[in-house]
Amino acid sequence: MAERRADRWISIIQSVLLHALLVGAVGYGWWQFHAPLPPMPHTLAIEASVIDGRALAPRPAAPVPIKPQPAPQPETAVPPAPSAEELAARAKAAQEVEAKVQHEAEEKRAAQAAEDERKVQEQKAAEEAEQKRVAEEKRAAEEADQKRQAEQKRLAEEKRLAEEKHQAEEKRQAEQKRLAQEAQDRAQNEQDLKSDLAAEEHARAARNGQLASWEAQIQARIQRAWLRPPSARSGIDCIVYVTQVPGGEVTNVRLGECNGDAAVRESIQAAAYRASPLPPPPDPALFERNLEIQFKPVD
To answer: Where are the alpha helices (DSSP H) in the chain?
Structure first.
């Protein structure tokens, strides 16, 4: 703003100086035209030579050339001195010119001031519009940023919910899979247990059958080796505990419950020793070191 005021004053000063120079030039020219000229001196242009008469005496006189004289200059008319009315008129004209110059300068200053004021108002309006535009852009940017943040927050929330739902679904599927696997394993275990029980039962039945058959063979051999004493009655029933080693050799015999007398008991022990070696089992896995044999001979 200070630069525009300085330019305005410079323009005013230049205009005033220009008008002052113009008025001064006009006044000086008018004064030169009406000022009286100084009187010119009247002189005659004569050229002459001084000759000594003694030098000319012995020689004839020679004609002296006469140069043409220049025409006399006419006297310039001297204008009369300006009167008081003329001086007053000159002063009035100068004042009018000065007033006109001042009026034009004032009008120019006023126009320049109005132009400056218009420019100031335009600049102010432009600045206000720019500030309003910047504020509007800032507000729009803030709103856009808020919308962007809200959108990001919404997307993050949706992503979180989707991840939680996905994790819950995976957990549910894993739980279902675990329960199904547990049910399958339980069913398989039950099936295996049933199979094992059936196999064990079958093996036990087979073992018991083979073992019963083997024990029956041992019982028959002991009964064949028994020498019945005279005191033996019918219906003898005794439990005989036999200890053997691999190969069937009997190493010890003792009787448990027995309804026979001493002679019967001793004869049964002797029969067990005489039955050695005992017959081997049909399966080596069925071998037992200690056997419990029921001695019940047929009468």
So the answer is: 2-34, 53-56, 84-225, 262-274
